[in-house]
Amino acid sequence: MGLGTGGLDIREVECFLALSEELHFGRAAERLYVSQSRVSQLLRSLEGRIGARLLERTSRRVRLTPLGERFLADVQPAYASLHGALAAARDAARGLDGLLRIGFQGTADERVMDAVAAFRDRHPGCELETVEIPLADPFGAVRGGEVDAAIVCLPMAEPDLALGPVFSRQPLTLAVSARHPLARRAATGAVVGAEELAGCAVIGPGEPAPRYWRDVMAPAATPGGRPVPRGPRVSTLQEGLVATAAGRGAMLLCAPTAALHGRRDIAFVPVEGLPDSALGLVWRRGGDTARVRAFGRAVAELYASG
């Protein structure tokens, strides 16, 4: 944009927009990382170009003039459009345009979907698709190229795959049939001790999930070494929940997954004494494209913000 008398300085517009939202010169200066005198200078310059006052400033308050309100209504969408065009151009230059396929197990929870929405807002030139992957095959879709990356339950120790951000560390929950003796603890807020798993048949994922991963999802022994009875082996989360409701065993789930699958025939009881669950973003080694890296940043920032 031109900087001459008849042109427009983008810095002046940014200053005006910050002032119109903050209605405070000090806060606007902090937001723009400049001094208050620089904010005043930019505003005076813009008002000089227009030939009239855009803001009224007194010792007590700052407010838009009627002309300032009209100018704001006109310039705000134009400024947003300009930033959108710049973001789209940057994405194209960095290889962010195109299709990104993200896999997830069971159900993508609210936080994951917030990350998806944030990514789509930032990168409108990239089409993001979410793909459900089987509970019993957490890494197959990534390895086979069906998805570019996947959000999976950890651990992950596959030499041909890379692990990105780790997030959503949560305590485990034991899902049991509403008729199970442990179900009463859900109503009272009591917990299940890890050693009590020795009295439960634990439902877990079957093959082709690697053995080390299956052993975490359905441990063969308690931390104290007591054997844990083996429950049915299932391919999907829904199969596991159906088997749980039918009283064929109990199932260990992370807390967000339990919260998303509340039903009357299953009770969810917190477990004490087992390591927390965690999610991670994985992709093929050498497959960390600009799109995958950008999605990883969106997920990491969302969870870091609390």
From TrEMBL:
Xref: PROSITE patterns: HTH_LYSR
SUPFAM superfamilies in the cross-refs: Periplasmic binding protein-like II, Winged helix' DNA-binding domain
Signal sequence region: none
GO terms for MF: DNA binding; DNA-binding transcription factor activity
InterPro entries, A to Z: LysR_HTH_N, LysR_subst-bd, WH-like_DNA-bd_sf, WH_DNA-bd_sf
Superkingdom: Bacteria
One Pfam family this sequence matches: LysR_substrate
Keywords, comma-separated and alphabetical: DNA-binding, Transcription, Transcription regulation
GO cellular component, one term: protein-DNA complex
Every HTH lysR-type domain range: 8-65
Family: Belongs to the LysR transcriptional regulatory family.
Classification via PANTHER family: HCA OPERON TRANSCRIPTIONAL ACTIVATOR HCAR, TRANSCRIPTIONAL DUAL REGULATOR HCAR-RELATED
Name of the protein in question: LysR family transcriptional regulator
Source organism per UniProt: Streptomyces sparsogenes DSM 40356
